[in-house]
Design a protein that fits this description.
Layout: E1 2-8, E2 11-18, E3 27-30, E4 52-55, H1 74-87, E5 93-98, H2 100-112, E6 117-123, H3 129-141, H4 145-157, H5 162-175, H6 184-191, H7 195-201, E7 229-234, H8 241-250, E8 254-259, H9 266-269, H10 271-282
Parallel strand pairs: 3-4, 3-5, 5-6, 6-7, 7-8
Antiparallel strand pairs: 1-2, 2-4
Length: about 280
């Protein structure tokens, strides 16, 4: 693994690469959040066939923090992705995104109209805030009454204390990661999540979007993304299976894999299934 820092208008961005000298088309990985960080679990294994690049978005992981939280915006993250790709020399690239990272990748494609993006891999996609919110509301309805009431009370009173956090963790254990116990890498990543980024872009609630992404919706523009797309989700994912199926049919050329016995972190919950699906899409099988 090789590391480097990339200077962008917002600050220095940390990046790393596995398998740099491999010859197949590189894979560029865009993490979720917003405000999360790079997790190399499972994904670095693709470096046996091709270079795999990761980077921490501004405000996340090992990258710099913005001087002003208002700098965190979809537009600036799009520009940042453009700079990262240019500085890493990824003229031809396959781009893989997770959760919020899928929104960033697709928005980058629609706004910049870049050349050389050969394929997109969108895992646990969030391409419409309204559709995401709808899925979360349906999931909450199926939680035990005490969990539902704690979530509703916290949102109603804007109090996100211990009771709300405990209820949210119960939700996470069902729809984010169903492993027991959670892997250390996920616990560390969550502990290092930058709430300044998350609150600015999303808001204090996991379930109700009040930040800058409140009205985000590119569902009706997916037909403009004219490269092959692979969508993946867990069968208990926050990203609802029916919604992800709707995304699939909206793209001109897209494939869908629903990973069994898993949720939003299906790439680490069912790594061998995930790798087989992705390798098939990449043509490595």
């Amino acid at each position: 693994m090789e590391e480097c820092y990339i200077q962008t208008p917002g600050g220095r961005i940390w990046s790393c690469v596995y398998g740099k000298k491999k010859e197949k088309t590189p894979l560029l990985v865009v993490h979720g959040g917003p405000g999360f960080l790079t997790m190399t679990d499972t994904i670095k294994d693709f470096s046996s066939e091709r270079p795999v690049y990761f980077y921490d978005q501004l405000g996340s992981g090992k990258s710099d923090r913005a001087k002003d939280n208002n700098y965190y915006s979809l537009e600036n993250f799009i520009d940042e992705l453009d700079v990262v790709r240019e500085r890493l020399g990824l003229n031809e690239v396959i781009t893989m995104g997770f959760s919020w990272g899928t929104a960033l990748i697709c928005s980058y494609f629609l706004q910049k109209k870049p050349t050389g993006m050969k394929k997109l891999i969108l895992s646990g996609p969030m391409l419409s805030s309204s559709m995401w919110k709808r899925d979360q509301r349906e999931n909450i309805k199926k939680m035990p009454q005490n969990i539902r009431e704690a979530i509703y009370e916290g949102e109603r009173n804007s109090t996100y204390g211990e009771k709300y956090q405990e209820a949210m963790m119960e939700y996470y254990r069902k729809h984010v990661c169903r492993m027991d116990p959670w892997p250390d890498s996920l616990n560390v990543a969550l502990s290092k999540m930058n709430e300044d980024v998350y609150h600015t872009m999303w808001g204090p609630s996991e379930f109700t979007i009040t930040g800058k992404l409140k009205n985000y919706d590119i569902y009706n523009r997916l037909e403009q993304i004219n490269v092959p797309v692979l969508l993946t989700c867990g069968d208990m994912d926050e990203a609802g299976v029916k919604t992800v199926k709707d995304y699939q049919t909206a793209f001109p050329e897209a494939f869908l894999a629903v990973i069994p016995n898993s949720a939003h972190m299906h790439q680490i919950e069912q790594p061998e299934i995930y790798k087989t699906v992705v390798k098939n899409f990449l043509g490595d099988v």
